[in-house]
């Protein structure tokens, strides 16, 4: 045995973070425990960390308490069936893709701003992705939904499409016209799948966009830990009444992909979150919405800051938004969202969900504290004054997403192919064997099977040289990129 084993680096880091008593505007949505169900807060959680014992049922073949809990969740959302997920929304999306695109030569239509977890579904199923360009929200420059016209064009051009995947809402809380997408898909007798990771709470307020099942989606996956009050990795997958997704196929894929040692803590948190949403969701969301709208009005009055609002949503792919997700642009200040996020953390002990070149995203959880939101507004005003007073300019990398590259082979074939590493700077014209995404928001710049273009190389080099987080590459520093060795 070698090394110093007296230290516990992860334990120490988490304890240090907790001791700082940070203000949390990020997922999980329980806000450090304050919005957890009282039964979860009071429980001796280690004593609940068990396995499939008598009376506790089996996630992979439920016929007792897990089955009952899933039925209650299905009833809450008007679903035909609900599956509990203990590997996050990632496993649910992958299961839906594999279940819907199981025929040889199947294709799936999906927006380019899907989460990087979709890659697993494409590799697992062998489906060919047909990407749809999403609409950008002017002034904020993030991708929202796709238009009905773009979807029709893709479905007419590619008869092999077996399913359509939509993101509802996107990371920034904006939704497209999902009802129109559902109507178009069903005209072609194709299922509409929804990545609703950020929309567990939408059903519980008439002042929020309708959720995916309400708008005609055939199946949806929700990260209950993000906005529903469950523990991290706790999600659920809903199949619509009369939907076009086979329940047995989904169950079969989940048995392959989910852990054979499911966490009862995660399943208990799903059960508790369901009850809390059913009994208290409306009142909690009304309070959160009032606080969020009040904060948005205050932030709008701060010089140099712009808050996402209905006035910014004049495009078919961006028709509504979730106000409990405060999207603040620092563009007029000349400050990057990355730098603003750093200042909030280092100088104000405030942690937000994400940052990009221009914006930050602060998630207001169910049960949000009004005083804490007031502290966020105060901090933003302080940053505005600091930056304007010092005539600072943030280090904003000049990033514009490159055009979609040519697709040479499916992600599965590229993933399984023989590979080699080459310098990123010399990779133009080669076929990528890996997905590379700038995080957040985790949108893949290049997928396995796509040709690496000069524009993609330039984009990745700028992101790398500005120290942005890069995910998916075998070389975490992205000095090299993995390509298919033809």
Features:
17% strand; 20 strands; Ornithine Decarboxylase, Chain A, domain 4; seven-stranded mixed sheet; 486 residues; globular; alpha/beta; single chain; four-stranded antiparallel sheet; Aspartate Aminotransferase, domain 2
Task: Write up what this structure looks like.
- By secondary structure, this protein is an alpha/beta fold.
- The chain is 36% helix and 17% strand.
- The chain contains 15 helices and 20 strands.
- The two termini are 43 Å apart.
List the helices and strands and how they pair.
Layout: H1 9-19, E1 23-25, H2 38-42, H3 45-48, H4 65-77, E2 79-85, H5 88-100, E3 107-111, H6 118-125, E4 128-132, H7 148-157, E5 161-167, E6 174-175, H8 178-187, E7 192-195, E8 219-222, H9 224-227, E9 235-240, H10 247-257, H11 264-300, E10 306-307, E11 320-321, E12 325-329, H12 337-348, E13 350-352, E14 354-355, E15 359-363, H13 370-390, H14 411-416, E16 419-423, E17 436-439, E18 443-446, H15 454-465, E19 469-471, E20 480-484
Parallel strand pairs: 1-13, 3-4, 3-5, 5-7, 7-8
Antiparallel strand pairs: 2-9, 6-11, 8-9, 10-12, 12-15, 14-15, 16-20, 17-18, 17-19
InterPro entries: Orn/Lys/Arg_deCO2ase_major_dom, Orn_Lys_Arg_decarboxylase-I, Prn/Lys/Arg_de-COase_C, Prn/Lys/Arg_de-COase_C_sf, PyrdxlP-dep_Trfase, PyrdxlP-dep_Trfase_major
Organism: Desulfotruncus arcticus DSM 17038
Family: Belongs to the Orn/Lys/Arg decarboxylase class-I family.
């Amino acid at each position: 045995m070698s090394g110093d084993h007296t230290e516990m680096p992860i334990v120490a880091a988490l304890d240090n973070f907790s001791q700082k008593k940070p203000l949390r505007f990020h997922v999980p949505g329980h806000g450090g425990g304050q919005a957890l169900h009282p039964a979860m807060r009071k429980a001796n959680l280690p004593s609940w960390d068990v396995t499939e014992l008598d009376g506790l049922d089996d996630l992979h073949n439920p016929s007792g308490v897990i089955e009952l809990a899933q039925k209650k969740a299905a009833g809450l959302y008007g679903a035909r069936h609900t599956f509990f997920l203990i590997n996050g929304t990632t496993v649910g999306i992958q299961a839906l893709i594999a279940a819907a695109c199981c025929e040889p030569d199947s294709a799936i239509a999906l927006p380019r701003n899907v989460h990087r977890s979709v890659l697993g579904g494409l590799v697992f199923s062998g489906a060919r992705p047909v990407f749809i360009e999403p609409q950008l929200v002017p002034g904020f420059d993030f991708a929202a939904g796709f238009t009905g016209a773009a979807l029709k064009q893709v479905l007419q051009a590619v008869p092999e499409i077996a399913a359509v995947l939509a993101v509802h809402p996107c990371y920034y809380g904006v939704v497209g016209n999902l009802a129109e997408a559902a109507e178009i898909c069903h005209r072609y007798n194709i299922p509409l799948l929804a990545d609703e990771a950020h929309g567990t709470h939408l059903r519980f307020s008439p002042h929020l966009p309708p959720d995916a099942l309400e708008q005609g989606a055939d199946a949806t996956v929700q990260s209950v830990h993000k906005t529903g009050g469950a523990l991290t990795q706790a999600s659920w997958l809903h199949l619509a009444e009369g939907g076009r997704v086979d329940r047995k196929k989904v169950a079969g894929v989940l048995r392959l992909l989910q852990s054979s040692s499911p966490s009862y803590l995660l399943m208990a948190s799903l059960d508790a979150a369901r009850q809390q949403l059913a009994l208290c969701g409306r009142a909690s969301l009304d309070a959160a919405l009032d606080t969020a709208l009040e904060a948005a009005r205050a932030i709008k009055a701060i010089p140099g800051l712009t808050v996402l609002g209905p006035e910014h949503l004049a495009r078919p792919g961006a028709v509504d938004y979730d106000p409990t997700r405060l999207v603040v642009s620092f563009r007029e200040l000349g400050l990057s969202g990355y730098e603003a996020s750093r200042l909030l953390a280092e100088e104000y002990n405030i942690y937000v969900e994400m940052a990009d070149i221009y914006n930050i995203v602060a998630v207001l959880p169910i049960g949000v504290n009004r005083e804490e939101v007031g502290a966020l507004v105060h901090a933003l005003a302080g940053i505005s004054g600091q930056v304007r007073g010092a005539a600072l300019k943030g280090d904003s990398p000049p990033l514009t997403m490159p055009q979609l590259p040519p697709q040479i082979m499916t992600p599965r074939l590229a993933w399984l192919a023989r590979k080699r590493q080459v310098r990123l700077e010399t990779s133009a014209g080669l076929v990528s064997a890996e997905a590379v995404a700038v995080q957040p928001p985790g949108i893949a710049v290049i997928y396995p099977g796509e040709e690496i273009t000069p524009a993609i190389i330039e984009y990745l080099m700028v992101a790398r040289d500005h120290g942005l987080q890069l995910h998916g590459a075998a070389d975490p520093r992205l000095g090299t990129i993995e390509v298919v060795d033809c």
